[in-house]
Amino acid sequence: MSNNDTEKKIDKKITKKDNSIEIARMILDDFLKDSLNQSKSIVTQENNIKDTESLIRAVEPILFSKYGKEEIMNERPYKINYIKNYWIMTGTLAGDNNEETMELGGTFELIVNPKNGDIVYLMHGK
User: Residue 96 pLDDT more than 70?
Assistant: First the structure.
């Protein structure tokens, strides 16, 4: 598979109009304020996650296992931000690509430590 084919495959998984930076900052700030959350983590098979492709490769199997592959596939494209040395990744709701319809809840939210690949925060809204 060429690099261009790989990029097209990844592009289908990530929103292009990523207006989620404020929500990502809020998720991370809440996590960093709660020291109890910081002691828990889920180990992934990736270390030193430097790009969105390796992030998705690391977390999708865990998301599929925990919440069901169909559920997570329906939350594509993902919103991914890199803030304060953490990856923050969330799913999207149907119609969520439009700023007017952006909502909280109903999708997964996770935070990954890029140095060791561990998921340090994971939840799914209802």
Answer: no
Supply the DSSP string of the chain, one letter for each residue: --HHHHHHHHHTTB-SS---HHHHHHHHHHHHH-TTGGG--B--S--S--SHHHHHHHHHHHHHHHH-HHHHHTTPSBEEEEETTEEEEE---TTTTSGGG--SSSSEEEEE-TTT--EEEEEE--
- Could you tell me which of 125, 6, 124 has the C-alpha nearest to residue 63? 124
Whole-prediction pTM:
0.73
Say how far apart CA 43 and CA 66 lie, in whole Å. Answer: 14
